[in-house]
User: Which sequence fits this backbone?
């Protein structure tokens, strides 16, 4: 009984995969990230450390704390919870009892540099409270997210000018620029990272839809790999000068339709609860709430 950890994503999915797939919608991010790392290990092999004062060019292999770590909790020989940590992102954690969240923070991950935690609000608070107790660090709310699932797609009416198309290799520079702009705008934990690898990885499975108006790209919707019959839409980004015309709604609808056409029986997305516009937009095109999650950030004393 207790937490077991590994740096081997295949071992993690072999042990915890059935548990995660049993509630695949709520575990969508854990499944997607783990499967993406299995498909493309290089995607989390480099990048900035969680400590912004650290050298972002440093080789994470020289510091095991900078490499992905996966884990699962067993009770009575049954998996009862899982986590993964891919620095600089927060620890991603399923719902577990408060005591289990606390032991993960204070024992299993002791000595590992943590930028925060992403979990249901109760689990996140238990994890963060235990981390604060042993480190004397500071915890703050980074974001509150709401997970939505597509019930039935309703296209915006009227549609804005233009039409969607799948992005191609020739869009690489534009996509990388917009991916970075989105990360900075939402204050992502990897906002200052080089997003080239992530963009190229998504292009490899046709993971971007662009809305064009007057022959010019005006909005973007990305999608994750299909995992366990699920595809998640995001990020959705429209440059400031193109906002207010309905492009975000339209490109999200187009990406959602592509996801269904690709065979996904669950199409999902997250929104920031502090952004009433996006929450309203996605509900109008057919998305319905599933659950809320808290993303808390940590800073050392």
Assistant:
């Amino acid at each position: 009984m207790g937490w077991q950890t590994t740096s081997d994503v295949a071992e993690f999915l072999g042990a915890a995969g059935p548990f995660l797939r049993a509630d695949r919608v709520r575990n969508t991010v854990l499944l997607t990230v783990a499967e993406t790392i299995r498909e493309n290990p290089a995607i989390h092999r480099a990048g900035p450390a969680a400590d912004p004062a650290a050298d972002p060019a440093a080789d994470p292999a020289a510091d095991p704390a900078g490499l992905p770590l996966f884990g699962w909790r067993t009770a009575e020989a049954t998996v009862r919870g899982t986590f993964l940590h891919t620095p600089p992102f927060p620890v991603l954690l399923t719902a577990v009892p408060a005591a289990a969240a606390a032991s993960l923070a204070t024992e299993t991950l002791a000595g590992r540099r943590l930028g925060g935690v992403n979990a249901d609000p109760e689990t996140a608070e238990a994890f963060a409270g235990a981390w604060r107790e042993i480190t004397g660090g500071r915890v703050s709310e980074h974001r509150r997210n709401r997970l939505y699932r597509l019930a039935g797609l309703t296209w915006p009416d009227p549609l804005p000018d233009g039409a969607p198309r799948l992005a191609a290799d020739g869009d690489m520079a534009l996509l990388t620029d917009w991916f970075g702009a989105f990360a900075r705008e939402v204050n992502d934990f990897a906002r200052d990272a080089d997003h080239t690898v992530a963009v190229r990885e998504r292009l490899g499975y046709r993971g971007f839809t662009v809305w064009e108006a007057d022959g010019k790209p005006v909005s973007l919707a990305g999608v994750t790999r299909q995992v366990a019959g699920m595809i998640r839409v995001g990020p959705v980004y429209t440059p400031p000068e193109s906002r207010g015309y309905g492009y975000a709604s339209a490109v999200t609808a187009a990406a959602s339709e592509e996801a269904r056409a690709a065979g996904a029986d669950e199409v999902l997305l997250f929104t920031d609860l502090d952004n009433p516009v996006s929450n309203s937009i996605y509900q109008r095109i057919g998305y319905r709430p599933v659950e809320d999650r808290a993303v808390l950030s940590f800073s050392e004393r």
Confidence is low (pLDDT under 50) at residues 46-63. The CA atoms of residues 72 and 82 lie 4 Å apart. Residues 121-135 form the longest helix (15 residues). The two ends are 33 Å apart (CA to CA).
